[in-house]
Specification:
heterotrimer; A alpha+beta (about 230); B mainly alpha (about 110); C mainly alpha (about 130); A: about 230 residues; alpha+beta; Ubiquitin-like (UB roll); 2 domains; 5-stranded mixed beta sheet; two-stranded antiparallel sheet; 7 strands; B: mainly alpha; 3 helical TM bundles of succinate and fumarate reductases; 4 helices; elongated
Chain lengths: ~230, ~110, ~130
């Protein structure tokens, strides 16, 4: 197995003792095909058990391991060490408060997500005996690309408008609102517009496009901004 | 939560952005040629006067100028915010009024032709 | 355990240096300064046109000053850059679904570029450039 010596520069912050963050350098031997998350796991296992970060699935599905890697918002389980040379700088996602080390506080995002009512609000409720709400493949395709979001918050770290204007509802919540608005079974557009069309909503988007860049694998924010 | 007044501002912005993209490059190209000394035949007084003298010509010129002005004013407002100028209401008022005043001026000049 | 999260502020006047994408965005936004100034020039041109042949000739002559040439050149660059960014964005802003499938993005943008080229050539033809 081919190995490589990886140098990581990781942002550290201990809420009990620190008033500001600092960078800590780690040197760790990794396998050629590892991802950044593997390197962090090796650091935590062999070098520094106090290092904190979130992760779960290790396969770009759960959306917990988002970090800034050399300044780009990335899923660390999906960022290969072989694509980097020299020191790799790992920071918590920007635009979110840092809870500890690489762990951020997602409270603001969670609250915004709830506000856009990301669930189907049927046009008219019907009893189960009347059968299911049917949908054609074309009707499904209309919103499918907006339904792939895994709530990893990379697009919030990528979006400068969210950084500058924290009340902005942000890419993922707008995308999800759009996803349900476009659903043929849904009749909740009006309710959602109360949030989306306010001065905190879609009008704050200036079409930077960074959200889409950060989310190429999962969803397509930005498109809904035009609607 | 108050509904935003931004759609009123945004739709002419989007229309203006499209107009700028389609029309302004070729217009700048024409005046740039004139600036370099090769004045295109279409920029002679007779040709321009005839174009602006006709109703459809007036409408096209006014549409291009007014929408482009509005779109630039709105984008400039966002740019000011992005550069860290946080007096957004003041910036917006000044820029939108400037765009409206210049559009009215353009309409008045056109009606005189 | 009490929470004591660290807030990292975004520098409001220099944030766009953090990423090349932000710099591209800001350069797109800055084109509005030149387009806006150019529109003012167009309004002045209309005023000169309304004032008669001599005034119009004076306006066209004034266009040929060195400062004006530099300004027009910058406006030309800004106008083309704005057009390119605008047409590239159309595929995101106006997704088009036919049947089940979405029309590929580059077809939507390409159609805009083609229409732009045709319109520009028509205008250049009618103004006697060729």
């Amino acid at each position: 197995m081919k190995e490589r010596l990886v140098q990581l520069e990781v942002l550290r912050y201990n809420p009990d003792t620190d008033t500001e963050a600092r960078f800590q350098r780690y040197e760790v031997t990794c396998a050629e095909e590892w991802v950044v998350l593997d390197a962090l796991n090796k650091v935590k296992a062999d070098i520094d058990p106090t290092l904190n970060y979130r992760w779960s699935c290790h396969m770009a599905v759960c959306g917990s391991c988002g970090m800034m890697i050399n300044g780009e918002p990335k899923l660390s389980c999906h960022t290969f060490l072989r694509d980097y040379e020299g020191v790799i700088r790992v920071e918590p996602l920007v635009h979110f408060p840092v809870e500890r080390d690489l762990v951020t506080a997602p409270d603001d995002f969670m609250e915004k997500l709830k506000r856009v009512k990301p669930y189907i609000i049927p046009k008219e409720k019907k009893p189960i005996s009347e059968g299911e709400y049917k949908q054609t493949p074309a009707q499904l395709m209309k919103f499918r690309q907006y339904s792939m979001c895994i709530n990893c918050m990379l697009c919030y770290a990528a979006c400068p408008e969210y950084g500058l204007t924290p009340h902005f509802i942000g890419p993922a919540a707008l995308t999800l609102a759009h996803r349900y608005n476009q659903d043929s079974r849904d009749g909740g557009r009006k309710e959602r517009q109360e949030v989306v069309a306010t001065h905190e909503g879609v009008w704050e988007c200036t079409f930077v496009g960074a959200c889409s860049e950060s989310a190429r694998r999962t969803s397509t924010p930005r498109a809904p901004c035009s609607r | 939560m108050a509904k935003s007044h931004k759609p009123v501002v945004w739709f002419p912005f989007a229309a203006g952005g499209t107009v700028i993209a389609f029309c302004i490059p070729v217009i700048v190209l024409l005046t740039f040629l004139a600036a370099l000394g090769n004045v295109p035949a279409g920029l002679s007084y007779e040709k321009m006067h005839a174009f602006a003298g006709n109703g459809l010509g007036k409408l096209i010129i006014f549409g291009v100028v007014a929408l482009s002005l509005w779109s630039s004013a709105h984008r400039l407002r966002c740019t000011c915010y992005d550069f860290g100028i946080r007096a957004d209401t003041l910036v917006a008022t000044v820029l939108y009024i400037a765009a409206i005043v210049l559009s009215i001026a353009a309409a008045m000049f056109l009606l005189r032709i | 355990m009490s929470r004591n999260p660290l807030i990292r502020e975004v520098p409001p006047t220099s944030w766009y240096f953090r990423h090349p994408l932000y710099l591209r965005y800001m350069s797109r936004e800055i084109t509005s300064i030149f387009i806006g100034a150019y529109c003012v020039l167009l309004v002045v041109g209309l005023q000169r046109l309304a004032a008669g042949p001599a005034a119009w000739e004076g306006f066209v002559t004034a266009l040929q000053s060195p400062a004006s040439i530099v300004f027009q050149f910058l406006c030309l660059v800004a106008a083309f850059y704005h057009a390119a960014t605008w047409f590239n964005a159309t595929q995101k802003a106006m997704p088009l679904q036919i049947g089940e499938d979405f029309v590929p993005g580059n077809v939507i943008s390409g159609a805009h570029y083609a229409a732009w080229a045709v319109l520009s050539v028509v205008v250049l033809f009618f103004t006697g450039v060729f």
